[in-house]
Design a protein that fits this description.
The chain has 74 residues and is of the alpha/beta class. Helix content is 34%, strand content 26%. The chain is built from 3 helices and 4 strands, in the order E-H-E-H-E-H-E. It has a 4-stranded parallel sheet. Strand 1, helix 1 and strand 2 form a beta-alpha-beta unit. The longest helix has 12 residues. The protein is globular, with a radius of gyration of 11 Å. The protein starts with 12 loop residues before the first strand and ends with a strand.
Length: 74
């Protein structure tokens, strides 16, 4: 997929809150374009280990929000 990432995102850390199919796709797209991504989940979310296995830094929702410059909710 050829997607142009806006220049203003280049030096930002983005928190993706949620790791459903859309959140996962968006997170991978950003990471593949050298944008720092953290995944925000609840500790009880079953996808926590999958997101970690996929190579993402996973934090609680509040910690992800505090760590990020931009937040995307899925």
């Amino acid at each position: 997929m050829d997607v142009q990432i806006p220049q203003y995102l280049r030096d930002k850390k983005i928190a993706i809150l949620g790791y459903n199919a859309n959140g996962e796709t968006f997170a991978r797209l950003l990471r593949d374009n050298d944008i720092e991504v953290v995944i925000g989940l609840r500790k009880v979310d079953e996808v926590w280990s999958r997101a970690e296995h996929d190579g993402f830094r996973v934090l609680t929702l509040w910690d992800a929000v505090q760590a990020a410059d931009i937040i995307q909710v899925w």
